[in-house]
Amino acid sequence: MSATIYQQIQQFYDSSSGLWEDIWGEHMHHGYYGPNGTHKKDRRQAQIDLIEELLNWAEVETATNILDVGCGIGGSSLYLAEKFQARATGITLSPVQAARATERAQELNLSDRSQFLVANALEMPFADNSFDLVWSLESGEHMPDKTKFLQECYRVLKPGGKLIMVTWCHRPIDNSPLTADEQKHLQEIYRVYCLPYVISLPEYKAIADQLPLQNIRTADWSMAVAPFWDFVIDSAFTPQAIWGLLTAGWTTIVGALSLGLMRSGYQRGLIRFGLLCGNK
After folding, report:
1. Domains in the chain, start-ordered, CATH in brackets?
2. pLDDT in tens, 116-172
3. How far apart are CA 1 and CA 90, in angstroms?
4. What stretches pass through the bilayer (predicted)?
């Protein structure tokens, strides 16, 4: 299964990343619209605000050597490298993304402090204790083994370093298992966005407890980010986007036509935006 899902993820992002950048820019993640999702703001500013809010929430004031796990085209990596005057390394399964991130580093004069590699997050090509900040923003949902994913993030983290993981989750299931309808809804999201499965935030917390990560904190920011999908849906049906979709290929078209799955997932409380941080 893993080989197949890796190929699907690579192909999905190889074909869609250029269009996303044309429409939305370099940040391939949710935006932050205030604690209750009510703040009106420019969509790209909302994405930058999410990065800043995450840093504030996790109490990160400095970093020297950063790993961005699932880096896209280097949006977070390069933002953090510039903000902290740090070295940043990004990994992705997509050669197209890695190449574009490298180009963007050159454009921003950050080539000497950044590198972007095609690598598997479950088998990272880095020594133990390499990074003082491991950052994973919306990549955990793609991982076919959530435990191995967090173990690898922990392994490459320096003692005293901080892990920040933000990922799509489903609702907690302690008190009530997922219904057949909820499971069907999730399966549709998995199919469209090349996800093996997602888990709940309490399940991620249980994995982190076993690492053993210290000072673990979690939060659910679903309300703060849910409006993002309204803006994505609106942008998908502009002339520029429609032309881009027609040239990007079938998987990208299917993704665009299925954006409502995520919006309705948030609306019904099934999809959750989960945060976890801790120190080694």
Report:
1. 2-279 (3.40.50.150)
2. 999 999 999 999 999 999 999 999 999 999 999 999 999 999 999 999 999 999 999
3. 25
4. 241-262
